[in-house]
Each structure stands twice: as structure tokens, then as C-alpha cells.
TrEMBL record:
Pfam families: Thiolase_C_1, Thiolase_N
Source organism per UniProt: Actinomadura rugatobispora
InterPro entries: Thiolase (IPR002155), Thiolase-like (IPR016039), Thiolase_C_2 (IPR055140), Thiolase_N (IPR020616)
Protein name, entry field: Thiolase family protein
Keywords, alphabetical: Acyltransferase, Transferase
Top EC class, one word: transferase
Enzyme Commission number, as recorded: 2.3.1.-
Domain of life: Bacteria
Thiolase N-terminal domain location: 25-217
GO MF terms held by the record: acyltransferase activity
Segments forming domain Thiolase C-terminal: 254-372
């Protein structure tokens, strides 16, 4: 059986990105959050709303039918609109659908927008009516606290290995005007903060707030037809999404990341060592250590040492979560994956300001969602 890859179809580019700051809960309506991000993406691209042919809206806590009440404020143009929910990977999934529409020729201009407010969320796995082995006690902080304890025990590490992830990412977030947390932290501050689960402290866990992010995906025909700036068009080399398999006693988070990333970099025709920028799912510090190893950015067990040596810092061998990651940029859920695309796009254009990774040519965006699902995208700088 033969399946198509994104690279088998026509080229796809990110031409515009926009954000509303990720922030704590406020009185700002989701409409204002989302429309702000979309208008900024349109301005960034040099496009009018009438040029957009299809829209995918990622949201997890706003109820049904989010797209129309929000996007109608930009104009009623009759385009197809679809709401996407895939847990933490919702924004990544919306972006993937936009890319596939353009690659297949169903549209020349597609919008992926993520928006969310703080609110109740119901996870279907809790509503099956079937007994659960963990009795519902293993909530995310406990799950990752247990993973952190296992990681440190099997590799002979200490709590400071985890805390250095937070120090790096809070420092990056302090440079990001769209981040929810914009304060640099010391190793001592991270380690001495309020404990949450196992070795994880509060500053090692992501904040879940509100915000919005938008990305406009276009074809070469759209770039030429609308007279857009090809020098700012970031190519999407691959888009891969997988779901959980059976991994035995291994961490499904890491193994799912391993297989999905391997497929994404292979389809992009590159190696992990070629990446200059990586935005990954660091909802808890242990995840960054697990994922840089699973992605092949370093060998198993080498993550803490490479981190301590500065290899994953801005200016290092590969900048990991230069936006601040979920730990500092924040994790409003629906917008998170599109926000990663916005950061990688800025980096590959050389427009990331004080967060800029020098000479960034290749970037990767990665998110894991409960279920479990994983989405990975590989992007290339203009002209590459």
C-alpha cells in the first residue's frame, strides 16, 4: 500500500503568522483573542481576508462552533470552516489540515488559527463508563512526576538536571513579548519553588491560560497571484501525525515522539543533526529531556549533560524552545501548536529579535496530545 507524503504534492509555505499574547485568564473575549491573531497574520503576509479560502480553528474549552462567531468579524465570505480538537495537539492538527488542503490543491490560501480561554475540560477517557486501572488518580502532574523520578533514578541524575530545563526556557520567555511568563529564573528559584509532584516544582510545570495564534498557509500560485513576498515564505517540508502503539514498559510519550519525529525528518530529507531550531512539548521539564533524546538530538541519557553545556540554548548547537516553550510561553492548549509554528517561522526568517538562533535554516515543531497523539512538522527557511 502506497501513501502520499506532503513532499509528493505541490509545495506549501507559511506566509503569515500572528499571535495574541498567551496570558492568565482575563475578561478578554475569545473573539478578540482570535481576531487579533488572524489580523496580525494577514498583515504579516500582506493578504486581505477575502483571499483566505478555508479555515481550521483549534479550540478545546470553548464549546461547539467556535469558528463562525469569531471569524465573521473579518467578513462573511462563505468559506468552509472546521473546528479541530486534538487535546494539546489541536493547533498542530489544524495546521496539518491547512497544509494538506494547500498541498493537494483544494485551496491556495488556508488559515490555521488556535484560540482558547480558561475553562472546564472533559476528557473522554474519563467518561467511557469503563473501570480504569489507575482509578483516575494519575493526573498529568503525577504521570510526569513519576517519569521524572524514573529518569533520574535510571540515569543517576539529580533534580538540578530537570531544573536547568526551566532555567533555560524561562530565560527565553523573558525575551518574548507574547509569553505568559516573562521572568528569568535562577536554578535556586526553580528548585526551591512550591513542589507539585515528585521532583517537579511549580516553575517546572507549564501554565494553562488563554491566547490565540494564527498561521496562513499558501501555494506558489498564491504567492505569485497575490504578489506576496517569496523572500519571507517558509517552506513546510513535512507534516506527520501518529498515535500511540504498544511500547511495553517504555514511556509512550518518548516512544511516540521517537517514531513520529523519525518519520517527519525522513520525509523532509534531513537528519536530526541538521535542525537549528526545535519547539517541543515541554509541559513539564522531564519532557524536554525525554524528547531531545527521542528525537535524536543527542543520545539516550545525554540530555542533561548537553543542556548543561549550552547545546540547547539560543546560540548553541540547536535552540530548543527559544519561544520559552510551554513552560514560559504558556500552554493555552488550542493555540499552542500554531504558536510553535509562529516561532519557528520567525526564527527561519531571521525575525526573532533577541531570541534569534544565528543562521537558522531548518526548524521542527512537536506536540503530544492525550490519547495519545503526536504531531511533528519540519520547516525550512526561505530560499533553502
Amino acid at each position: 500500500m502506497t501513501t502520499l507524503r506532503l513532499g509528493d504534492l505541490r509545495p506549501v509555505y507559511v506566509i503569515g503568522v500572528g499571535l495574541h499574547r498567551f496570558q492568565r485568564a482575563s475578561d478578554t473575549s475569545f473573539v478578540e483573542l482570535g481576531v487579533t491573531a488572524v489580523r496580525r497574520a494577514l498583515a504579516d503576509a500582506g493578504l486581505e481576508w477575502t483571499g483566505v479560502q478555508v479555515a481550521y480553528t483549534a479550540a478545546t474549552r470553548l464549546g461547539m462552533a467556535v469558528s463562525r462567531p469569531m471569524l465573521r468579524h473579518l467578513g462573511a465570505t462563505g468559506i468552509p470552516m472546521t473546528q479541530v480538537e486534538n487535546a494539546s495537539a489541536s493547533g498542530s492538527s489544524a495546521f496539518r489540515l491547512a497544509c494538506r488542503d494547500v498541498a493537494a490543491g483544494f485551496a491556495d490560501v488556508a488559515l490555521a488559527v488556535g484560540v482558547d480561554k480558561v475553562g472546564k475540560v472533559a476528557r473522554a477517557e474519563h467518561l467511557t463508563g469503563l473501570p480504569r486501572p489507575d482509578a483516575g488518580l494519575v493526573i498529568p502532574p503525577v504521570h510526569y512526576g513519576l517519569l521524572a523520578e524514573e529518569y533520574l533514578r535510571t540515569r543517576g541524575g539529580g533534580p538540578e538536571d530537570l531544573a536547568r530545563v526551566a532555567v533555560k526556557n524561562h530565560g527565553n520567555g523573558a525575551r518574548n513579548p507574547f509569553a505568559q511568563r516573562q521572568k528569568a529564573r535562577t536554578l535556586e528559584e526553580v528548585l526551591e519553588d512550591r513542589p507539585i509532584a515528585g521532583p517537579l516544582t511549580r516553575l517546572q510545570c507549564c501554565p494553562v491560560g488563554e491566547g490565540a495564534a494564527a498561521a496562513l498557509v499558501v501555494s506558489e500560485d498564491a504567492i505569485q497571484g497575490f504578489g506576496l513576498d517569496a523572500g519571507r515564505a517558509v517552506r513546510v517540508l513535512s507534516s506527520v501525525q501518529r498515535s500511540e502503539e504498544l511500547y511495553g514498559a517504555k514511556s509512550f510519550d518518548a516512544e511516540l515522539t521517537r517514531t513520529t519525529t523519525a518519520q517527519a525528518v525522513a520525509e523532509a530529507g534531513i537528519a536530526p543533526a541538521d535542525l537549528d531550531v526545535v519547539e517541543l512539548h515541554d509541559a513539564f521539564t522531564i519532557e524536554e529531556l525525554q524528547y531531545v533524546e527521542a528525537m535524536g538530538l543527542c543520545g539516550d541519557g545525554e540530555g542533561p549533560g548537553r543542556l548543561a553545556d549550552g547545546e540547547f540554548a539560543i546560540g548553541g548547537r540547536v535552540a530548543v524552545s527559544p519561544s520559552g516553550g510551554l513552560l514560559a510561553m504558556g500552554h493555552p492548549v488550542g493555540p499552542t501548536g500554531v504558536g510553535q509554528i509562529a516561532e519557528v517561522t520567525a526564527q527561519l526568517r531571521g525575525e526573532a529579535g533577541t531570541r534569534q538562533q544565528p543562521d537558522a535554516r531548518l526548524g521542527l515543531a512537536h506536540l503530544v496530545g492525550v490519547g495519545a497523539v503526536c504531531a511533528v512538522h519540519v520547516l525550512a527557511a526561505p530560499g533553502r
